[in-house]
Structures are given as structure tokens and as C-alpha cells.
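Task: sequence design from structure.
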């Protein structure tokens, strides 16, 4: 799995303009109440934002200690439009976010189902770990409901797919959790640049802050490390490119066919990870670039110069790379030694320094975990 070394994991920039009155995509405006026959129609009750427990009012999104999926995670059909009309300005953004949230929610749900309190204690973690994970799972259920309600009644609200995550025991589970949470923080810095409505930008920032609390808890309680991530977390402006990498966790063909494309728009860039010969992922280290999906490899033009672009904090640094003899010869790049060993570094391959547009990116992004540094190195060694 790519993100074992660099998260080609999760956890898009120029927003697709929706022209009022135009049917910009077939899934945006089916006729109201047109629920395909293979669904019971029960999920349609969720089209009403006041149906069921309300996030911010109900404690089910905090302190539900059951094993079964909490609302609305237990209602898995897509919710179909109840009005005819063009999609609202930000519907695609919230559809992307809802689809990504289903993946995160299911990650926690699978953890709750796979482990119990004593499994974590046996792995050397605090006896509160399981409960905290349940609470995070409940918060994520609240996110599902918030995002469903942000999608207007003229657009479909996507349902979950099936997902497989590469964890076997509590330590690899918590390592993946750490990486997913910090990747969502980076992804939200890009996504927040998309909505046209100011309130929605605020809502995304509020969600990013919750993911940050989850991450800080893991850094302190699980990894017993410094919880701070430097003066700024990493901005990566092309959020859909980060989302696209999470398709690696989706069981092919398992999504409801009425779901919108995920993410939309989708570039299908080759996945990027650190190669096996890489010894360290800290700033100043030489890393080999591995394009992990054998069926989706980059194409390098012989007359062009390509760059490994490293994003950290509010900065980015571009390092020219030698692609001439690839794939016979591995491509190597040095992670800028000027970066602090904090938070994450996001790496991408671009055909322009600074990766000024989403189209300039030709592979990646991959998320490089810097904190805790020991965990990053262990992940690299497949530990
Ligand atoms: C927790 O799960 C393990 C198996 O993973 C099992 O042996 C143990 O009895 C369970 N403990 C509790 C308290 O349910
Ligand atoms: C959990 O651990 C704390 C301290 O590590 C201890 O004081 C407490 O009694 C433990 N609780 C249970 C239920 O084992
Ligand atoms: C998805 O998971 C469900 C429940 O485990 C299963 O019945 C179904 O066959 C799976 N679908 C695919 C396409 O894997
Ligand atoms: C990278 O940094 C350069 C120089 O500060 C800036 O012009 C460029 O917009 C940045 N790239 C991205 C994608 O933010």
C-alpha cells in the first residue's frame, strides 16, 4: 500500500463553474423522488436536514458506545434529489467531502469492530484508547450528517462504497489513523479554497480543527510525542488530487452507481510513494520516487525538465529531477534540508517549478509523515 512509506493516501484547485440552468452532470439533476428500484427509499427521509439527531445538539455524535454504526452511518443508500434544478454552487465540493468522509467513518468503524479495549492496552496504549476511537467515530458520523445537509436538494448525496485498509493490529491501525488525520488537515487547506459561500469556508475550517484535535490526541497519548506541528500546517492547494489517492482504499466496483465521480473533477494522476531504497524521510534525505500503480505510470517528455515539488507549511521548494533514463534508472530527489522535521511534507512531480496549476502536476501527491519521526522511519521499513 503506497502510504506505508509516503501516504499516497488521502485523505484540485480550480473550481468547476456551474452555469445556472445548465445540466452540468447527469447525476446532479435527476427528477425528484426518482429513487431507483433497487433501493428501498428509506434513505430519502434523510433529505430533510431536521430528520434524526442533529450535530451540535445530539450526544450521539460524542458519547455513543455501541458497536453498530451510529446514525447516519447506518443508512447507506445514496439520498436522491427532492427538487429539480441546477446544482447549488458548492454541491460538487460537498459531494467530494461526503464521499471522503464515508471512507474515514468506515476506517474508524472497522477499527471499532476489529479491536476491543484490551487489544490496545496489550499494545502498550492507554486504557482510554478504544473509547477515544469510538468518540472520533461518532464525530465522523456527525461530519457525515453535516456534509449531507450541505448538499442542496437538487443534487444526490453519495452513499458509501466498500473499503479495505492495510492494518492488522492496533499499532499499524493507529499509525494509519495518524497519517489519515494529518492528511485530512492538509487536504482541507486546499478544499477550503473552493466554496463560493463564506459560511461554507468557515464550516470546513471548523471540521479541520476537529481533525487537528484527533491528531493531537494521537500524538500525545499514543505516540507520547510533542503534539505541536510547527507554526503552520501544510497547505496543498489541489485538494481533489489528495482525495484521488484515497481511491486506493475503495474496493473496485463497490460504490453505488448513482454516486458522482469521486473526486469530481478527477485527474487520475499516477500515485507517488517513496521507493524501497529510501533510507529516511526526514528533511535532507535522498528519496527515490516510486510510482506505485503499475497500471498508471507517468509519461515524461524528453525535452522537458521535471521537478519534485515539496510543500511544507506555507512554503514549497522545487528540486529538478532526472527523468531521462526512467524507468531503467530510478528517479531520486533530496527533501529540502531547510524544512523543519514537523507535521508533514507533501511531495508531487510537476512540469513547472512551484506547481502553479493543478495541470502542472504529473504524479502524486504523496504525503510524507515527519512527526513522530520515529513512526515515519518505522513505516518506511514496513514496521
Ligand atoms: C478482546 O479481543 C481479543 C481477541 O482479539 C479477545 O481475546 C479478548 O477476550 C477480548 N477482550 C474483551 C474484554 O472482550
Ligand atoms: C486506566 O489507567 C489509569 C492510569 O493509567 C488507571 O488509573 C485506571 O484505573 C485505569 N482504568 C481502568 C478501568 O483500568
Ligand atoms: C460490499 O460489502 C457488502 C457487505 O459486506 C457485501 O455484501 C458486498 O458484496 C460488497 N460489494 C462489493 C462489490 O465488494
Ligand atoms: C510555490 O511557491 C511559489 C513561490 O513562493 C509560488 O509562486 C507558488 O504559487 C507556490 N505554488 C503553489 C502551488 O502554491
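Answer:
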Amino acid at each position: 500500500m503506497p502510504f506505508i512509506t509516503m501516504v499516497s493516501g488521502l485523505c484540485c484547485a480550480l473550481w468547476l463553474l456551474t452555469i445556472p440552468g445548465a445540466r452540468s452532470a447527469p447525476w446532479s439533476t435527476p427528477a425528484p423522488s426518482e429513487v431507483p428500484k433497487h433501493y428501498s427509499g428509506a434513505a430519502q427521509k434523510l433529505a430533510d436536514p431536521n430528520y434524526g439527531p442533529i450535530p451540535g445538539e445530539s450526544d450521539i455524535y460524542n458519547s455513543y458506545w455501541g458497536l453498530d454504526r451510529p446514525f447516519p452511518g447506518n443508512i447507506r443508500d445514496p439520498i436522491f434529489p427532492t427538487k429539480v434544478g441546477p446544482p447549488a454552487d458548492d454541491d460538487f465540493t460537498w459531494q467530494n467531502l461526503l464521499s471522503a468522509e464515508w471512507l474515514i467513518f468506515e476506517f474508524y468503524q472497522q477499527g471499532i469492530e476489529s479491536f476491543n479495549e484490551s487489544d490496545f492496552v496489550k499494545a502498550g496504549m492507554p486504557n482510554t484508547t478504544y473509547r477515544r476511537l469510538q468518540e472520533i467515530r461518532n464525530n465522523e458520523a456527525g461530519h457525515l450528517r453535516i456534509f449531507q445537509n450541505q448538499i442542496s436538494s437538487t443534487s444526490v448525496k453519495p452513499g458509501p462504497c466498500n473499503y479495505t485498509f492495510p492494518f492488522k493490529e492496533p499499532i499499524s491501525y493507529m499509525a494509519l489513523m495518524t497519517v489519515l488525520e494529518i492528511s485530512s488537515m492538509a487536504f482541507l487547506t486546499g478544499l477550503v479554497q473552493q466554496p463560493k459561500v463564506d459560511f461554507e469556508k468557515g464550516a470546513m475550517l471548523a471540521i479541520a480543527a476537529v481533525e487537528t484535535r484527533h491528531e493531537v490526541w494521537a500524538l500525545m497519548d499514543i505516540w507520547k510525542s510533542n503534539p505541536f506541528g510547527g507554526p503552520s500546517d501544510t497547505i496543498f492547494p489541489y485538494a481533489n488530487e489528495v482525495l484521488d489517492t484515497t481511491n486506493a482504499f475503495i474496493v473496485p466496483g463497490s460504490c453505488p452507481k448513482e454516486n458522482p465521480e469521486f473526486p469530481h473533477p478527477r485527474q487520475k494522476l499516477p500515485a507517488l510513494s517513496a521507493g524501497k531504497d529510501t533510507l529516511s524521510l526526514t528533511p535532507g534525505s535522498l528519496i527515490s520516487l516510486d510510482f506505485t500503480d503499475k497500471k498508471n505510470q507517468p509519461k515524461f517528455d524528453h525535452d522537458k525538465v521535471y521537478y519534485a515539488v515539496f510543500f511544507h507549511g506555507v512554503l514549497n521548494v522545487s528540486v529538478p529531477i532526472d527523468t531521462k533514463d526512467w524507468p531503467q534508472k530510478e528517479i531520486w530527489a533530496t527533501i529540502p534540508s531547510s524544512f523543519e522535521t514537523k507535521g508533514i511534507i507533501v511531495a508531487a512531480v510537476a512540469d513547472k517549478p512551484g506547481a502553479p496549476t493543478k495541470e502542472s502536476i504529473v504524479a502524486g501527491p504523496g504525503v510524507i509523515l515527519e512527526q513522530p519521526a520515529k513512526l515515519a522511519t518505522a513505516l518506511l521499513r514496513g514496521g
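The longest strand covers residues 361-369.
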